[in-house]
């Protein structure tokens, strides 16, 4: 193995409101909305102003999508635009209008960058996507949301926002910041197989909502650790003392900048799938490059306490430097992901340079 840790860098680098809903009803808290999941489950996408042709366009995009289950009075669904990127995948923009006012909901598969803090920041608490914010600069009336979600990513965008060079939101006025927050908190996932909005899970906004993302409870962890100790999962890759020391030195250095992301940094393997985790200069953010069947994929990720989440996947820290846990997408059972010294293809890695820059990830020491 060369001096670059896992080959990932330099000498120490790693890797609309429905007719039955009033504005007053629409401003309920996320906790109250969470109790209305059964009603949300019955909301058909076509009942939210989407045409049959637009619905088919959404399905053709083949991307996990959100849209607001409610919007301020008078606003109507007015357009749907998509964009394809060979490097980061599909993106979309939903447009809503009311007279001379407009706003949009943007979704993207990856390659996001941080939104600079505005002179005015309005907090968003979405019961499904987690926390976010609406930013507004004193010198610019445009409203724009911080990205929410764990991949794909979603946000509110205001009047005159340019999506892929288009004029979808041109020549109109912004809504109020309060309305922008309302729209952001009303975003829910679409089920494009049954053509409905998915119900709001009755859970805390920052808690994982699926079997795959749910952090293991004590009973599961104890059983998992017993299997590890017995060798039921195999022994993984045995790192040399020098490799382990170099890995720990790198993670310790990064922990001063990104404490939650640092412990996940490095190369990992489960079967024939490899995970290369790179830290970001933004706390709690990471970049994940996966290699499976010879294909590399890039994802923006988020490290929260003892979890790393990217797309619809979760990796769990179990207080062992050389082993992470993950869940089988079908059974929900835990399986191990072992530390390794594998090296990614440098030319493949270069294809994700844009995503690395926008996520402020790096292969170098902080």
Helix percentage range: 10-25%
Q: What does the largest sheet look like?
A: 8 strands, antiparallel, barrel
Q: What is the overall shape?
A: globular
- Strand/helix succession: HHHHEEEEEEEEHEEHHHEEEEEEEEHH
Q: What structural category characterises the helix and strand content?
A: alpha+beta
How many strand segments?
A: 18
Extract low-pLDDT stretches.
1-41, 202-210
Rg calc: 22 Å
Q: What does this molecule look like?
A:
With 366 residues, the chain is α+β, with helices and mostly antiparallel strands. The protein folds into 2 domains: 5-13 and 209-359, Lipocalin (Beta Barrel), CATH 2.40.128; 36-197, no CATH class. It has 10 helices and 18 strands. The strands form 4 sheets. It has an 8-stranded antiparallel beta barrel with strand order 11-12-13-14-15-16-17-18. A 4-stranded antiparallel beta sheet has the order 2-3-4-8, with helices on one face. It is globular, with a radius of gyration of 22 Å. The model is unreliable at 1-41 and 202-210 (pLDDT under 50).
